[in-house]
Amino acid sequence: MTALQGIRVLDLTHAHAGPICTLYMAAMGADVIKIEPKWGEMTRMFPPLVKGQSPYFLFLGRGKKGVTLDLKNPEGNDMFKELVKDADVVMENFSPGTMDRLGLGYDVLKEINPKIIYASISGFGHTGPWVNRKSFDPIAQAASGYMWVTKDALAPDGPPLQSPEAIADTVPGFTALIGILAAIVSRNETGRGQKVDVAQMDSMIGTMQSFSFWNLTQMSWTRAGKSGRVGVSGLRETSDGYVMFALPPGRITDSFTALLGVEELTPEIVDGWVKEKTTDEVVNILAETGVPVSAVLDLDEVQASPQAEAREMFVKVDHPTMGELVQPGFPIKFSETKGDISAPSPLLGEHNVEVYTRLLGYSAEKVEELRKKGVI
Ligand SMILES: CC(C)(COP(=O)(O)OP(=O)(O)OC[C@H]1O[C@@H](n2cnc3c(N)ncnc32)[C@H](O)[C@@H]1OP(=O)(O)O)[C@@H](O)C(=O)NCCC(=O)NCCS
Q: What is the location of CATH 3.40.50.10540 in the chain?
């Protein structure tokens, strides 16, 4: 059993924000049909290609059925509408207006299937003066204040800094996922679907504690944190590496103070104590004492860690042309319903025959004819 068994998603997403949302739906057992233009979705081309495949697509495409479909071809457009009749979710992250130009906007799709949940991610949402602006992760990092906050925390006198992972794609992707799941619950009650309109900028603003700190203290949250007693928290150098630990006021700080046998912790005392020890020693002592701590691990060390292994956080993926790949696992551990993302990303159009015969009742010959005509 999987949590989203029986939920079918028509996945038109590209780049990162949409695909990470549908990746997690696939992991929870949804039937995710990834519909690509005939030339393939953009992350397939993201460099560097290894044996003709992008590491990006190999990560985000997992567990999805891959079909090609030309939505600008009238026959292809009709096929999509046919698929909508029996689908639960349509998900897209094109620039706003794209689906309307294709004649596939929410107003059209809900006439075909009033139960459909139409989820959309865009840079700035489907309303407001910036509606027509296109966006990628760094654009949303810039527009939400996230780049400014990162600079303010790490290098206040330098230029704005960008987070290296696509945080302003992943947060919106998960925001959309929450919206879709809530819309499914609501639809189960009312029998009606709805549109879920998620903006990258909104999603980032909605999760940033800095705005609350700023409005009350004129400081971003890291700066406000550094100004209090938690000033001895943070990154420290050991005799053979780095550790990160956090000392909030209260019993955690008190137990660390008692461990060191001092009246009050100062950055100098903590520096001296840490420097004489190896990373392993510091981690073991602090973990024993109840202080939140970790060595600063590189990616190989994370993958080799016994904790990640125990939690099955790296899975082996058997890919038809790449062979065995190692990819991040699924981080939600349900007690009853399985979560899994070890199925490979599809090759372009790999499941055309399977999906169009299964969902539209076409013969294999008809699918081949559609391919020859350039519809798929
Ligand atoms: C990511 C983004 C900047 C890319 O911009 P872009 O490459 O110009 O793509 P757009 O979304 O504007 O348009 C996609 C085009 O491909 C077409 N297309 C997509 N799938 C198709 C299909 N299966 N068949 C035919 N055409 C297809 C669309 O119809 C559209 O064509 P049009 O411009 O003639 O209307 C833009 O999609 C965007 O801002 N998305 C919202 C924010 C977002 O999610 N960004 C990515 C974060 S990782």
A: 8-209+346-373
